[in-house]
Every structure is written in C-alpha cells, then in structure tokens.
Design brief:
Structural class: alpha+beta
Distance between the termini: 22 Å
Length: 403
C-alpha cells in the first residue's frame, strides 16, 4: 500500500529570458535532463540561472497549455531545492521559520507554507511534508535556493546552539519531474503496482515506478490533477522515456506553458506576485496560517501579520484577480479606479488560452477588492476597462477524497 508524504507546488523565479547564444546556455546550471531536452528540440533558456526548456517544436505555447488541460504533460522541475530536516526537534524548528501548522499534519501529508521575515514579508513559498520515516521534506523555489539555504542553515545553527536536536540536509542526487493533466493517472498507473486512485492531493507515496525507487506526490503547479516525482538523477531519463512510451498523447512541456497554466490556476510566482515586501495578508495567503499558529503568534513577523489581519477597517493592498478588456496586461502596468487614479499594479498577466480572456493578478487598494468592481488598466499609453474577479480563473481539478 501507499506510504504517504505530501506536496503541492508552487514556485520562485524571475522573468524567463531566452538566450540566442548557445555558449551562454552551456555556462548555466543544468538538470540531469538537459541533454534529453536538447535531443528533443527543446528551446533552452535561462531561468533563475538554470538552462531549462521554454517550449518544444511539436507544440506551440498555447497548444502545449491546452494539451495539459486535456491530456498529460511532463515538466522538468529538477531545479527546485529539496531539503530533509532531521532530529527530534525538527517540527519545533521548522515552525520557527515557516507559518505552517506542521505539528497538526497527519504523517505523510504536506502543505504549502510561507517562510517569513521579522517584518512579516515572504522570504519564499515552500512545500513541507511530514514523513513517517522520521524527517521533514522541504521543497523551495530555485530562484530563492541560495538565500533560502543560507537562511535555514543559519537558523539551524542558532537552534543547535540553543540545545535543539535538528539538522538540515540537501537531498542528494535527486531530480524532480511534474506529470500534469487529467490523463496522468492512466499513464502513471502502468508503472505502478499500487492503486494510484488511493493517493489524494497533497499526499505522497514512496514507491517503485517501473522498478525505479521514487517519491510520488499528488500535486502540481498547473491547477490540474497531477503528480511530482522525486527520482534518482541517474534514472530520471529512463523514467521520462518510460512515461513517454506509454502513449503518443504524453508530451513534454516547458516553462511557457507552465507559467500560463499557473496563472489560470491563480497560483503565485515568487518575485512577481509575492516577495519580501508583501505579507500573507496582502497576498491573500492567510489560509496557510492555522488558528493555532495565529493564536500562538510564534512565527517570524507574526505580530505585524496578525495586526494587518485583525485591523478594522481593512487597509493597505491586496492581491486580486483582474480581467482586462481588449488588451493583455503585463507586470508593472498601473491599475486605475474609474476616476483615473492609480490604485495598484499588475504583477502577472497574459491571455488565457482556455477562456480567451486577458487575465491578470494585481495588487490594489483594499477598497477595490469586491468581485465585480469596475477598474481600468493602463497598457502603455492607452487605458482599458477591467473588472475585479475571483481566482482561480479556470476551475482547479485537484484530486481530493470523495465527500
């Protein structure tokens, strides 16, 4: 039977910048799938210092996006930082740097959490799993990996000096791939002896996939049903080839589709939609902080975060969904009220391949967060009508237990 662990996804970087100079790509950090991507015609770009595919020649960005919504796609996310937290005080330690209620997690489940600073700002969004094997598994964003690791190891050293039993280990020699889309279960089940239908969202199993030892987690960054698979570096190409060999409908996908998929799902991109200047309240991420953690106020920045959360009337900015008429919104475009006053800024935006609408995330003044509120967005020198809407922009399809 499945032994469950947990992870959903979510992630950190800057803009995707294509490189025309192959020698510069060769100088970037590479995942163990780099040669495979090149062999398959992947257009390699610089993403947070890593050489990763933005697209493949068989499908356009929009076609790859839509294929993931209807079929199944494989994404290379091996650039993510994977950590193990050991020791009998591991939960006390992790709750000193994350807002998650790790103590209350069932064994072998996980959750999205936030690493906050003393001002309540978000250092990174991470995934934490509570493993029955006696450790915590932490997955952090690639673009934040260096600062995250420095922050965590510094806090760990301080904790050890204070007498806590805790240690941080970078998970060695493991890649990470995401298999996303409604056909994922049919495809992956071919490589499993266990029943994948018993693995629910935010749960993980330590299993063999076509005889390869893996950690399979029901999660993803697309809003679709899917898994992320942690696999030994020296067997990741073998695993991808086995997955690709199950059906012609299994496709490789790149960063372009991954970004538009996560935007439709209303998921944040670190560095665009959240950063160290935004709090969980402003980012509409208070759902990551349980009642116990709110009451205890024992995580970094708790006092400021709770003051914002409890303030009446509500003030400041909030992350919202916006649909813009006629023109796509891009990061940093001003958001205006109907009187033409600047009341916010777009942080992510693109045309939605599924709805055909121009969707965006933005931070706006708290007075304008009611669904249906008419707004305007300035696109270069023109101003276009917009509306505040609920997120996600496309219904999510996470695989949850039957009610």
């Amino acid at each position: 039977m499945f032994g469950l662990l947990g992870r959903n996804s979510v992630r950190c970087s800057r803009q995707i910048a294509a490189s025309r100079n192959f020698s510069s790509i060769q100088e970037l950090k590479k995942t163990p799938l780099f040669d495979y991507h090149v062999e398959k015609g992947g257009k390699m770009v610089d993403f947070a210092g890593w050489a990763l595919p933005v697209s493949y020649p068989d499908l356009s960005h929009v076609e790859s996006h839509l294929h993931t919504r209807k079929g199944v796609s494989i994404f290379d996310v091996s650039h993510m930082l994977q950590l193990h937290i050991h020791g009998k005080d591991r939960i006390k330690f992790i709750e000193s740097i994350l807002v998650a209620d790790v103590e209350s997690l069932a064994e072998n489940t996980g959750t999205l959490s936030l690493m906050t600073n003393e001002n309540g700002g978000i250092i990174d969004d991470c995934i934490v799993h509570k493993s029955s094997a006696g450790f915590l598994n932490l997955v952090c964003n690639a673009g934040c990996a260096d600062k995250d690791l420095a922050h965590i190891t510094e806090r760990c050293s301080a904790a050890v000096s204070a007498g806590l039993d805790v240690a941080v280990e970078v998970k060695p020699a493991h890649s990470l791939i995401a298999v996303q889309g409604p056909q994922m279960q049919t495809v992956l089940q071919e490589g499993l002896q266990d029943d994948l239908s018993k693995l629910y969202f935010n749960h993980t199993a330590l299993v063999d996939v076509w005889g390869i030892p893996c950690r399979v987690t029901r999660c993803g960054y697309t809003g679709e049903d899917g898994v992320e698979i942690s696999v030994p570096d020296d067997r990741v190409v073998e695993l991808v080839e086995r997955l690709m060999g199950t059906s012609d409908e299994v496709k490789l996908a790149g960063l372009g589709a991954r970004d538009s998929l996560r935007l439709e799902a209303g998921l944040c991109l670190y560095g665009n939609d959240i950063d160290e200047t935004t709090t969980p309240v402003e980012g509409t991420l208070m759902w990551t902080i349980s009642k116990r953690r709110r009451a205890a106020r024992d995580f970094p920045g708790a006092d400021r975060i709770m003051e914002q959360f409890l303030a009446k009337p509500k003030t400041g900015k909030r992350r919202v969904g916006v649909i813009v008429d006629k023109a796509p919104a891009r990061p940093h475009y001003p958001v205006l009220n109907m009187e033409g006053e600047v009341i916010g800024e777009v942080t992510s935006g693109s045309p939605s391949p599924c709805s055909g609408k121009n969707i965006a995330m933005a931070y706006v003044d708290n007075k304008y967060i009611k669904n249906g509120t008419p707004l305007q967005v300035q696109v270069r020198k023109r101003v276009f009508s917009a509306t505040k809407v609920a997120m996600p922009f496309v219904p999510t399809q996470y695989y949850n237990p039957p009610k």
